[in-house]
Every structure is written in structure tokens, then in C-alpha cells.
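User: My instructor asked us to take a sequence, write out its structure as C-alpha cells, and then describe one feature of it. I'm not sure where to start. Here is the sequence I was given:
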Amino acid sequence: MGKMILSFNASANVADTMIWQPTLGLSRLDHDEVLMGEIIALLETALRERVFDVNMRANSNDFNSLRRLTHSQLPSLKILGFDQQAKVFEAFESAVVMSDELACKRLTPMVQKIWMNTIDSLTRHQRTVAT
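Assistant: Let's start with the prediction itself. The C-alpha cells for your sequence are:
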């Protein structure tokens, strides 16, 4: 199959510069803070429950399974305002579909890092809201 051209620097360090915009997520939910809290709790739980699977799939280069794990999180990421992170997951999904093993290997560390950073962001946000 063809090779994928990435519209960003595909290094794990890029994940450090990706920010979350909770206010964007809140606006997408018509400023319903209760609904946002529920979606955050569900997403955080799902990410935590699957973090071992993500790392295992990444370490074994099981790109198809890893794609399924990231794909299932895309709607929540987009709703909550994790737009940059969702783009990386979408790029990873495209790389898998195109059977571009090089792009998959370049994106995998980013996928793992974004997964962990998203959990951390959600946890920090929940603590901030609770205080």
C-alpha cells in the first residue's frame, strides 16, 4: 500500500505540547457541566482500564488491536476538546488501514504518551472541579 504523509512531527515529544481545552469541550456540550463530568469520568475509567492493553499491543506491534482501542476513544476525545490528540489517533488509524508499518511505528509512542497524558489531564481537571 501507499505511504502516509503526516501533517505533524511524529515524535513522542509532540505529545508534550498538546493541550486540552476543557472550555471548548464544555461549549460543545452546551455548557452542561454535569454531562461533561459524566463523560470525563467514563473516559477516564475507560482509558485507565485499557492502558495495559494499549502498552501490550504497542510493544507487540499489534497495530490493528491498538487502532481499535484508540478508535473507540475518538468520540469522547473530540467532544471534550482533545482535538490535537484525536488527530494523532486518526493519523494512527489511517496508517494502520494503509498498512504503513513505518508510520505505525513512528506514531505508536505518541499514542501511548497521549493516552497517559489524557488520563493525567482528566484526573487533574476532576480534582480542580471538586475543590
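For the description part of your assignment, you could build on this observation: The chain is about 75% helix and 0% strand. Try explaining in your own words what that tells you about the chain.
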